[in-house]
Amino acid sequence: MVPVVIVGGGPTGLGLAIRLAQLGVAATLVERHSDTAAFPKGRALSIRSMEIYRSWGIEEDVTAVGLPREHLAFYFGRTLTDPSGRRIVTGPGARPAVPSPTYTLLCSQDRLEPLLRAHAQRLQPGRIRFGTELVDLTVGPDGVTVEMSAGGHHERLRARYLVAADGARSGIRGRVGIAMAGPSGVSRNLNILLDADLGQHIADRPCAVYTIDQPGLHGAFLAVDNQRRWLFNLVADGDEVDLDRLDDGDCVALIRAAAGLPDLAVGLVGRQVWHASAQVADRFRHGPVFLAGDAAHVTTPYGGFGMNCGIADADNLAWKLAAVHHGWAAPALLDTYDPERRPVALASAVESHLRLTDTIDARHTGAPPRGRPSEGLVLGYHYTSAAVTADGTDPPAGDPVADYVPTGRPGHRLPHVWLDPEQTRSTLDLVAGDGFTLLAGPAAGWPRPRSRRSGFR
């Protein structure tokens, strides 16, 4: 019997495999596709996700495959080359810095996943199995039995726990009888992955998203490299466009019209029709089976919460699985995964839906959508599960979505403070690694020998 089987090789599944390996837990990951994602899909890594990657020791590697921080801006215009278009900066310098040792990073999923896969393969040698499909699952009180197929070869494997990170259409979620709730199909979209030399036209105003709004054409150029690689998202209002009937010529014409460049040379790489939803699973656990990432929650792209929620799921679940596996925590610790992560997913889904409807409303008024910070939702969420001992104080006041207020209250993110004049070591670095850290002032009366006996750093 293996400790953990992970189904799904996206950012959530690969991240979980990485973190479990760092915590000394062998995990077998199976992914039915032979390679990582070709489409960019998720693109923005939040401050909290980058803090998690920092704690895993891969922040610098991830930063190296992302775009410069100066590209964290939004453009609004009738076309990409509209001289009256507006650029709204959201990155460094847009407002007072959030207290963190890192930054939001624009890194598309097709660049992130190969990096995560390489780390996972190094840390879990021989256990990261792409091109392998789960074809059957039996759930028992003491574990699961999975049947896998790869190239016509079938294999059966027993595992103590299974984590379903197999996406929004999770087959495992359906097998164990967990339903999704929330708005579904709230907008119809077409994503066109393309190659076109647009970098020269935006060199003086690089952005993450270039929103295009003109009669009969509502969409956005989403930067992949801000040079030649782009994702164009077309939003269909009502029945004015049948997305499934658009051919290559139609797609090229759309791109040229959105760019304002009638002679633009466009290479089509691929396209996908999809529907935006904001749904969360009724529960995140069924016995030894856990849901994580898009299998547990789906958000609209507005706000960029989806992939980041999955990364935090992996970080939360990994240490709990490791604690139970190594025997220093009771299995009841795993019961805290749902009450900790599900409320965050619900809040993220609701906010993403509100931002989508706000964008649609703004389109009809002709004004750019109202933007608001999301630091409260990204950094200020807190846990109130049985694993947290409350101190009797109230959460900080403020907008739970927009406002982040640093606090030492139990269940909250540890506030960031630089520990050296060179600003290379953060308080968050004290709690990275594979153990617990006790922070105590000189008046606390907690001697170092006692900390060592208690297993604290």
UniProtKB/TrEMBL annotation:
One of its GO terms (biological process) is ubiquinone biosynthetic process. The keyword Nucleotide-binding does not apply. PANTHER family: BINDING MONOOXYGENASE, PUTATIVE (JCVI)-RELATED (PTHR43004:SF19), TRK SYSTEM POTASSIUM UPTAKE PROTEIN (PTHR43004). Its cofactor is FAD. GO terms for molecular function: FAD binding; oxidoreductase activity, acting on paired donors, with incorporation or reduction of molecular oxygen, NAD(P)H as one donor, and incorporation of one atom of oxygen. Keywords: FAD, Flavoprotein. Residues 2-347 form the FAD-binding domain. Pfam families: FAD_binding_3. SUPFAM superfamilies: FAD/NAD(P)-binding domain. This is Putative polyketide hydroxylase. It comes from Micromonospora haikouensis.
